[in-house]
Write a structure and sequence with these properties.
By secondary structure, the protein is of the alpha+beta class. It has a domain of about 50 residues: YefM-like fold (3-Layer(aba) Sandwich). It is built from 4 helices and 5 strands, in the order βββααββαα. It has a 5-stranded mixed sheet with strand order 1-2-3-4-5. β1 and β2 form a beta hairpin. It starts with 13 loop residues before the first strand and ends with a helix.
Length: about 110
């Protein structure tokens, strides 16, 4: 009988254990569709902790779940690019402009004096 030649396969970048459904491809963890369905709270806790996950169905990636980035305002506050207001409300107006003519307002805006 003929013996089939065994061709060596290249090492896979996927490493899975039989006791865990967590597989790692490079640096991104994967969870199966079944695991997501049956252990939603546990999977979402991992995402909330900052982990980015790929959901697979029969070994094929079908979705990616990632934590939400902080909104733009929160990011700018954290970086110091934005400072929160010290006081709230409308700032007081220094002079009674309601009685000014349009010409006086334009002169004030231009920095001209009478």
């Amino acid at each position: 009988m003929w013996a089939a030649a065994r061709i060596p396969t290249p090492p896979s970048t996927t490493s899975c254990t039989r006791t865990s459904t967590h597989c790692y491809r490079g640096s991104m963890a994967t969870v199966t569709r079944t695991e997501l369905n049956q252990q939603t709270a546990r999977v979402l806790a991992r995402v909330q902790a900052g982990e980015e996950l790929t959901v697979t169905d029969r070994g094929r990636p079908i979705a990616r779940i990632a934590p939400i980035e902080p909104d733009r305002r929160a990011r700018r506050l954290a970086s110091g690019a934005l400072r929160p207001a010290v006081e709230s409300g409308v700032p007081p107006i220094g002079s009674p402009i309601r009685e000014w003519t349009t010409e006086q307002m334009l002169e004030d805006m231009r920095g001209e004096e009478e």
